[in-house]
Specification:
The structure is a homodimer. The first copy, chain A, is α+β, with helices and mostly antiparallel strands. Helices cover about 45% and strands about 20% of the residues of chain A. The first copy, chain A, has a 3-stranded antiparallel β-sheet with strand order 1-3-2. In chain A, strands 5-4-6 form a 3-stranded mixed β-sheet. In chain A, a hairpin with a 5-residue loop joins strand 4 and strand 5. In chain A, helix 2 packs across helix 3 (about 45-55) and helix 3 (about 45-55) packs across helix 4. Chain A starts with 13 loop residues before the first helix and ends with a helix. The interface of A and B includes residues 116, 135, 141, 149 and 155 of A. Strand 6 (about 140-150) of chain A pairs antiparallel with strand 6 (about 140-150) of chain B, so a sheet runs across the interface. Chain A binds a DNA duplex (30 and 30 nucleotides) through helix 2 and helix 4.
DNA sequence: AAATTTAATGAAAATGATTATCATTATAAA
DNA sequence: TTTATAATGATAATCATTTTCATTAAATTT
């Protein structure tokens, strides 16, 4: 359903901001826009550089602060792929939510998204979550599943 | 089978070291000893402090270097629980290998190990690994599964 | 057992991602 | 428009981890 949110930068998140009492500012709009336009796993600096192209007055501090806010609001996910910098991506949004996990190449750092087996996985995960919640009295909010290994290029170049 | 590896610090890893051409040094022995004696998820500094009690000449650099070596050898696992410092724990050893995962409290940082559902999980994981390897030509070496949420204390104190 | 080779060590400095400080600016409400 | 204050951005600070390099000590050879 394209155009559902009007032209220009997506505004689907304005309601959430208003509801939380947060102000809608230019830096925040552009940071969301950049996240929305990218399907990659951007680091804070990646995001900073892209926002900077559109709005050169942006400060790196604001990027970090905004990302932190968005993580806390649940609008984006923060990942750690072990390369010393965090990565961010939209959790849901105007597009359909896409539950996926990652294959991470320990040699070149390439990240492959996959959505295979998500259904079966989700089923097991749900069951596990329920049981663990009960047993440990632990209120599960989120989970991560990641596979580490060698991508095709790095795998063949090592033989 | 206690005593299988002789008295004093465990020596089950000496063979692996020799095989790789690595020297068996005092710092390395004590770092392994500390890891072996602890069931917790120690940070580099935790390990440094414990080793320091036994062998005050130890340097933090050596701890980092040794941990890196051990990770590459596959003797220990390195985890990131999102608190800005890496954690390490023995992957296998004289004790039976224990495949487990973690519940991480996003409020107080407490980490709970669990081994429940590991069998079912492992089954799905194996299947997933096989299929993903084929589909993406990705050679999987390792995986992490982590649940984030609120532990019992933090959960109740927030209501 | 002493000499030799060189991997391993440790002190200190460097790095690099992230966070804190604080004066200034701009959003949203009156 | 005025006002209150949340948000911003430049700068400095933090802090885990790495790098550098002169020194030390395993392991091998004599």
């Amino acid at each position: 359903m394209p155009g559902r949110w009007g032209k220009g930068p997506a505004r689907w998140w304005h309601g959430e901001f208003r509801g939380c009492g947060y102000r809608i500012t230019i830096p925040r709009q552009i940071i969301l826009q950049v996240l929305d336009e990218s399907k990659e796993h951007l680091s804070a600096e990646d995001i900073y550089l892209r926002v900077h192209n559109i709005y050169p007055a942006i400060g790196l501090t604001t990027v970090y602060r905004t990302l932190d806010l968005l993580v806390n609001m649940g609008l984006i996910f923060k990942f750690d792929f072990g390369d010393g910098r965090a990565r961010y991506e939209l959790s849901r949004g105007p597009k359909e939510p896409s539950h996926h996990h990652h294959l991470i190449c320990i040699n070149c750092g390439r990240i492959i998204d996959y959505t295979d087996f998500v259904d079966e996985e989700l089923e097991l995960l749900k069951k596990t979550e329920k049981e663990l919640s009960k047993k440990y009295n632990f209120e599960i909010k989120n989970h991560t599943i990641q596979f580490y290994g060698l991508c095709d290029k790095c795998s063949t170049s090592k033989e």
